[in-house]
C-alpha cells in the first residue's frame, strides 16, 4: 500500500489551535492548506475505531480482516472462500448465503431494538412518521408478499420511482427479501430517463407514488411514470403509493394502490437465502459515452462493505440519530440511508423535501427537533448554507451533533471551516468521504477517532483499501498529482455493468491494466494525504452528481433545430459545476431567447432538471481538430473566461476569437 497510514507519521503542520482564522485571510490557504485538526480527546476515547493498528491488521491479513467484519452479519450458510479474484471479476464470500433484509430487520427485532426507531421520517409539509424496527419489519414482510402475489420472483427486476417517503426503503427491502433486484430511479429524472432505465433492466414491476412534495409544489411522479410506461413492454404491474390527495389516472389491471395490496397481505414472508454473489440491485450512473450504465451490486460483499464503513466512518452507537441527507435515488442513499445504517440497527432520519422550505433553516430545525447526532451532506448544500448566512443555523440548538460528513465532490477548505464552525460548533470532526456509485461503499475517508484532519483532504484510504496515485504510464507518484486508482478489490465493488461486460472491462480496467481506474484526479502530499481534484474524463460533477457531457449533447441534438452541440462544465459558486452548451443550429433556424429556453427545457425533458444547461451559446461553428474532433478543452477555457490554451491543432484558428467575443458579449 503506497498511501501512508496517517498514524505512522504526524503531519509536519501546526496543531489546530495555531490554525489561521477563517475569513478573508484564509483565501490564500486554499492553495496551501496548512490547518490540521487532530481527533478531539473526548471523541477518540469513545470512538468505534480508536486504535490505528486496524490499518496494519488489514494490510497484514487482507482476507482475514474482511472476513472478521463480515462475520458480524448473520449468514444462513458460511462462505468457503473469502475472495476469488481474476481481473476484473471479484467474488466475495464464495458459497456464503444470506439475506439483506434479514440483516437489516429480523436480527434486530429479536432483542432490545424491537421497539427502537428505525426510521424517523418528516414530510415536507410537516407530517411525521416513526417506524420502529418491528413496524418496518412488518411493512417489508407485507410488501414482499404483495410483490410475490403480483408474480415477482427471485432474480426479477423491480423499478422504483418514488419521493423520499418510508415506502421507498420498504419497497427496496421487500425486493431484497424475496431476491428481486431493485433498480431505483431518482424521482427527479424525467419520464424518458425512467423509460430507458426500465427497458435496460427489463423490469417487471414499477413501484411509484401519486406524487411528492418539493418546495411546496407537487412532483407528479405518477404522471411521468404513465408517460414512461407507454414504451416499457416488460412492465406487468405498477404499485402506487398514495402520498397526497393528488389526482392520478389508474390503469385497470395494471395499476394497484399500495394500501390495497397491503391490506390483505400476510405479515410474514420467509427471507430468500441469497448467494453472496446474487444481485442485490442495479443503479444507473453516467459514463463518458451517452448511455447510462446500470451498475451491478451483489449481496454479501456489498452488505459487508456498507455495514463496516457505517460503523467505522460514522462511528454509529446504539443511541445515535443518523441523518444522511441524500436522496435514496442516489447511491449515497442506498448505502447510508438504507443498507449501512439499518444493518447496524441505527435510527435513521429521512426528510422528503427541500432544505429551504418553508425557510432556510429547515435542516437545522430537524437537527434540533430530532436531536440528530451524526449529519452527512454534500458540499453543494454546504455552499448554499454559507450563502444563506449563519443566522439560519444560529436560530437552533445544534449541540446534539457530534460528527459531520461530506460527500459528492471535493469540499473546499473554506466550506469545510464554515461547516466545522457554524454547524459543528467547532468541536465535531468532519469526515470527507470519497467514493462512487461503482465502489458501493466509502473508500477514502478519515476515521474521526484516529485521523488528524486537513480541511479539503479526504485523507487516507480506509483499512483494507489499497489506493494509489499514478501517472499516464501507471507508475506510482509518491508525492504529486495523477490518476486515482484502486489496486486491490474491495467487498462492495461493482460486479459489472448490467448486460455489458465489455464496457465494464473497457471503462474501468483498461487504462492501467489490472487496476481499477476511478476517473478522478488526485494529489498526494508529503504526509501521504490524498486531495481529490475532480474528474479527468468527460463527466461533469454537478451538485455532487455525475452527468456526462455526451448525454446532454445527445439531448440537445435530439431537438429538431439543433445541428451540433458541445457541452462543457464551468466552475459554479454553488453547484460546483455549471453546464455550458455551445450549440450550432440547422440551416434556416434562427437563434433567439425563446429557442434558448426551449432547448434548456428539452434537456430537462430528456434527462431531468439536474442536467438543465445553465447557459447556451449559439455559434455558427465549433472549434475542431483537422480530424473533426471537438476541442472541449478550448470551450472550457472560453466558458471559464480564461486565456484560451494551445490552439495549434485547430482546423480554423479564427473560430476561437469569434466564439470568445460572442461569449463575452452574451455574458455582458
Ligand atoms: C464521483 C462519484 C459516492 C457518492 C456521491 C456521488 C466525486 C465523491 C467525493 C469527495 C471529492 C468526490 C468523484 C467521484 N466525489 N465524493 N469526498 N471528494 N470528490 O456518486 O455520482 O457515483 O460520483 O463523485 O469525482 O468519482 P457518483
From TrEMBL:
The modification N6-acetyllysine is found at residue 629. ATP binds at residues 408-410, 432-437, 520, 535, 546. This is Acetyl-coenzyme A synthetase. One of its GO terms (biological process) is acetyl-CoA biosynthetic process from acetate. Transmembrane segments: none annotated. Residues 113-496 form the AMP-dependent synthetase/ligase domain. One of its GO terms (cellular component) is cytosol. The lineage of its organism: Bacteria, Candidatus Eiseniibacteriota. Its EC number is 6.2.1.1. Residues 1-24 are annotated as: Disordered. It comes from the Bacteria. Residues 52-104 form the Acetyl-coenzyme A synthetase N-terminal domain. Catalyzes the conversion of acetate into acetyl-CoA (AcCoA), an essential intermediate at the junction of anabolic and catabolic pathways. AcsA undergoes a two-step reaction. In the first half reaction, AcsA combines acetate with ATP to form acetyl-adenylate (AcAMP) intermediate. In the second half reaction, it can then transfer the acetyl group from AcAMP to the sulfhydryl group of CoA, forming the product AcCoA. The keyword Glycoprotein does not apply.
